[in-house]
Amino acid sequence: MTGPFIVICSEREKLAGLGEDSFSYSFGTEDTGYISVFDGCGGMGAKKYPKAGNRSGARVASKLAAYVTDNFYEDKQFRFDGTDCQRLKECLTNEFAKMRNTIETETGAKLGGDLFKTMPTTASIAAVKINGSSITCEYFWAGDSRGYFLDKDGLCQVTKDDIKTDEDAFTNLRSDGRMSNVIHAEGDFNLNTREIDIDLPAMVIASTDGGFGYYGTPMDFEYIILSSLMESESPEEWENRLSELIIPVTGDDFAVSIAVYGLYDIAGCKEYFKERCQFIKEKYIDTAGENADEDMLLRLWQEYKPGYYRR
Amino acid sequence: MSSNYKMKYNVDIVFVIDSTGSMSDLIDIVKKNAINFHTDIQAVMSKKGKTIQDFRIKVIAYRDYVADGADAMLRTDFFNLPEETEAFQDTVNSISAFGGGDEPEDGLEALAFAIRSKWNTEGLKRRQLIVVWSDASTHELGFGKEMENYPTRMAKDFNELTKWWGDKDNTGYMDYNSKRLILFTPDVPGWSDIRNSWDNVIHYMSEAGRGLEEINYNQIIDAIAYSI
């Protein structure tokens, strides 16, 4: 078996030509592949570089990280042997340093402080190896971009946000916690990793905070993924519909990549997830209604939370 | 529930302005743009898809307790914008650049007042910003404490001021996730110490003695909007 059979990547720049989110993905003839998303940090990386077409450090960073990750995959460097994270981090460190040396100039105001980084970006990367009826998934991340899987039991967040305060996904939607770690050109960053086996069928998902971070609850993110699927007849329609649901809500650029394993076409995918979509709608979305108060949302989150963090 | 849930920001900004003689250019920029400030910030925020619900701003103009006596510190309350734009503008227009005495000024006392502002604690998403403009270094806290009008409830030294600012284990007077400190100052004692030891700081380093001529209004608006 090879796969995945469906890959969608919804993304949008809030400002045309100035977007700071990027994605890349690839699936070769062998049973491996990857999806990835990157969110250049506009606040920390607002400095513009004349030698990079006056683009911001944030934009340069997310594009460069996507490029480096794609090369890493094409060079067959995802080996699933416990060394991938260290080697990917070295590649990112080296290429970011090279880019900084290329575009940095002596002119312009000097910037400093912990809110400034040279070419900062978050990352969420999921490299996948197929093993018959399951997959091995290596998640790599930095910052607050997230990696998930979604199976018949619902959405599960696998990554842990790099934020300075220890908050769950519901609380962080409100407090907007400060990131404690991002990829940047000075090199002193962490690339986190976690490897898990996932039974199929399942979706592997990577998203920047623009995708999940502007809803009232984490349940909403699962619901828009599934409801957009239910309203689509092709992967392209799914991609477009997902964007249509995110755009009115998000306050940011966004990139969401989804790879579906163990299901062979959109009809089969819809059929498989139909029951879960209905369950989420009835139990959480409809129960909350249009004007749920905070206590109600918190109570629903407490019911949903054990499944969301089940792995 | 998805489509009805729109995150809105409550934004408080404190302008801390060195108002000694050499700062007249910057003060003129602030005066000239005061009336449009709310609109300009909101415009940049809107482009990023973010909506400001409550927007408040206050001003602290500072000089030197030893050299300037009663003129050493001007503090306003928060103005609600856009409703109180006129009062905000009148206040800004009342600031003029003079005095200062020696080169270091009492910027840390002004920053201490800013940290202890009555911040808005309402709303799901908040930003508490302090924006400092100066072309000079700072005296150590308490340099002017022998003066009659020196404040009584002031941080006694830099360590205490650091506690007032707080960190993730010690909240201080501001919300840890919401606070931001933006410095438009030279890389000189006082400001560089803050940059090197405090969380949630961005420092636009101007050249000492050259004023803030390389910093323009659009940069200021961008720096603030990107910090929200």
The major sheet of chain A is characterized as: 5 strands, antiparallel
**Main beta sheet strand tally, sense and closure of chain B:** 7 strands, mixed
The portion of residues assigned to helices of chain B is 25-40%
Question: Which radius of gyration of chain B do the C-alpha atoms yield?
Answer: 17 Å
CATH architecture field of chain A: 4-Layer Sandwich
Q: What topology, given as strand order, has the largest sheet of chain A?
A: 1-13-12-9-10
Coarse shape of chain A: globular
| H-E order of chain A | EEEEEHHEEEEEHEEHHHEHH
Low-confidence parts of chain B: none
Give the total of domains of chain A: 1
Determine the N-to-C terminus distance of chain A.
Answer: 25 Å
- The class by helix and strand makeup of chain B works out as alpha/beta
Average pLDDT confidence of chain A is: 92
Structure report:
The complex is a heterodimer of chains A (311) and B (228). Chain A is α+β, with helices and mostly antiparallel strands. Chain A has one domain: Phosphatase 2c, domain 1 (4-Layer Sandwich). Helix content of chain A is 36%, strand content 26%. Chain A is built from 8 helices and 13 strands. In chain A, the strands form 3 sheets. Chain A has a 5-stranded antiparallel beta sheet. In chain A, strand 7 and strand 8 form a beta hairpin. In chain A, helix 1 packs across helix 2, helix 5 runs antiparallel to helix 6 and helix 5 packs across helix 7. Chain A is globular and about 60 Å long. Chain B has 228 residues and is of the alpha/beta class. Chain B is 30% helix and 23% strand. In chain B, strands 1, 2, 3, 4, 5, 6 and 7 form a 7-stranded mixed beta sheet that branches. Chain B is globular. The two termini of chain B are 25 Å apart. The model of chain B has no long low-confidence stretch (mean pLDDT 87). Chains A and B meet through strand 6 and helix 5 of A and strand 6, strand 7 and helix 8 of B. Strand 6 of chain A pairs antiparallel with strand 7 of chain B, so a sheet runs across the interface.
